[in-house]
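Researcher: Here's a chain I'd like modeled. Treat it as a single chain, no partners, no ligands.
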Amino acid sequence: MTKVELMAPAGSMEAFKAAVANGADAVYLGGRQFNAREGATNFSAEELLAALDYAHERDTRVYVTVNILLDDRELPEAVDYLYFLAKARVDGIIIQDLGLADLSRRLLPELPLIGSTQMTITSAAGARFLQERGFKRVVLGRELSLADIAAISRQVEIELETFVHGALCFSYSGQCLFSSMVGGRSGNRGRCAQPCRLAYTLVDERGRPLEAKPEHLLSTRDLYTLDRVPQLIAAGARAFKIEGRMRRPEYVAVVTRAYRRIIDRYLADPEGFQVLPEEERAVAQIFNRDFTPGYLEGDPGAELMSYGRPSNRGLYLGRAGRRQGERFLVHLEAPLHQGDGLEVWVSRGGHQGVVVHHIWQDGKEVTSAPAGQTVALDLPPSTRLGDRIFKTSDIELLQEVRRTYTSPRGERRLPLAMVVEGRPGEPLRLEVTDPAGYRAQARTGIAAAVAERHPLDEAVLAGQLGRLGDTPYELGSLEAHLAGPVMVPLSELNHLRREAIAKLRQVRQEAWPQRAPSRKEFETSRDALLALANRGRPGARREENRKSGQGEKGFRPPRLAVAAGDLEGARAALAAGAQRVYLAGEVWQGQDPPEAARIRELVAAARDKGAEVIPALPRIWHETEARAVTRQLEGLAATGARLFLVAGPGGLEILKEHNLAGWGDYHFNAFNSWTLKALKEAGLKGVTLSPELNLEQLRGLVAPLAVEAIVHGALPLMIAAHCVVGARLGGKRPGQACTAPCRRGRFSLKDRLGLVFPVRSDRHCRFYIYNAKEISLLDHLGEIAALGLDWIRIEAREKPPGYIRRVTSLYREALAALGTREEEDTLAALAREAAALAPAGITRGHYFRGVV
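Model: Modeled as a single isolated chain. Structure tokens:
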């Protein structure tokens, strides 16, 4: 049976040791730069080197996350960081940025690449895209079912990694702009503010609340798959990933230990597989928001979510009973010890925490009480009869797991085979061999003498050579080949042991490959490659070169594109003067998919006007939907369209397989010039740039292919597999179909500040949350035009035809005014009219502020 790799998280050295001590095959961590968990303690260069030595000596692999988007200014430093990691013998890097991945493949071809879940790989085509570019492994999207994983596994050779435990993002990873657009903190840059854990109110199209109070409508439960380990292995997952680089060491220890035991138990005895109650209880006790298997068995609807609480709920302990003096009687549903932490869900005042200092049972104070007993406890004064009590911290569990990584006795040790040879007049020789066959030899500094009273024997040798202290080794076996009664001082035996172990450590460390060329060779190749990227045509033209008056020689304004959600919207855009229309690949609930004949007519009509229609593939699809997407593409190819909009590696791959040309949507997260180069080499004709770039970053881009920027519209802040409307109003649960309320009205989410975020659902029940405010850059169009972009886009997939027609007309007027004497006044007037079309207000996006 195929062995799977258990990957544990580490946000600190203590958590790292907890992972290794409790059975992780590999640990993933981040340095102090370029990683998607900026809030963790993370590892300095020195700490990282120490962690690698520590792990490798214990036969544990280490993967380093370099999984954020990088701009052009950061790429040289990031490439140097990869070289440092390769020289340090890391076992792989987890990466999101396609440009950095391409540079790594060229400069450090032996450094294994793991595609981050931020790449949004949900299909075999997406996995093949990475496989063809030298990736060793891909972290699949957490929204995939077991059937999806199995279908992908059958078609690819690249290793598949899946999350098995921990926090779930509400949005597809890599497709979330919520924290970025609303708070300026980008999840793609490692600084997500987690707006999904806040409370929201579901409202109708008039803004009226549909529920009694705000709840945590985007807050998911925690993933738990201990009981689904066999199915995940059978589906083809080759690496099991525990989420939690922000978690404390005790969490890492408990969860890693549980999955280690479960995996080993299943591989040893598949027929007798079971999860023990104490294992379930331990992982729930250490942290949970309630548990869910996620999407492994399909869409769980409301059972995915933790509406009432976005943080740890612990284990249910019981309810507050009648008072006994100042205390409350509680019938225990779980064991309780002095030092445990409790949280009382009081009727008024929310959740109040307390540490158990005293437990009374039958009038006597006790240190602990088992489940099933009734005890008296000191609880917060606001506690009322019937209030629920949860145990959020178990002192005995914490103390137990701390010992596994703080005490040498708790550490897993490798047995060594030792052979000692000696004869009088010659140095004593020691050979040590580890289970993998690595060996080292040492000899005493003096010759052995004939023993007169206390000759060396196996007992004495074992006593001295077995003193392996805080090393990860233990004496497994000992052979002594001594020619007669010999002796050496015990201090010489100690020196002999230390020298042999030091040599063995060196041999074992050097067995882990150093995956980098010489520094000189690397720097020469690096400098040549980075210079090569600057030889493309400028995608950003300096403002001072832009205009010296009307009709400046060489100035060409960008052309205007519009993304529309249906045929009516597309026709409105063309009628108003759009030179390009993207026709959405998704079909909204309540709509009928456009017929191929009507799309063909639209393509022909646009061509007669000198414009073009670019049909889009769905932004996201799962492998179990792949055949339908292929049929959709084949139908679109028959319409006469010459270019197709794709939103990720999977779409690009199937275009290549059908020999069709593509334009990359902004979901590719193109953030630097090298990513643009990589996308061109992958076959794209052009790409829409990341909306997280600011003007300064855009000016610095060097684009070897056509580029576009979004200048207007309400962007989807999240794309999710979970539909809030269906779960809350449609009754969607496992085994219970949704009643499709989304077909009967429009809905929004209202936050605590009163901002209203429109939501839509497509025919596959994927859920889109749109920004409350619309990007509008009409009054800054001169600065945008100076960038040298080929296209600017109005993003209006969720808008009605009337809106599309009017906004398209405004931008046509604005483009015509560029370079004229009336430019400033015209743009200001048009911007005011556009603002009037956005009652919730407008935003400049990141063009002036950027992201952190």
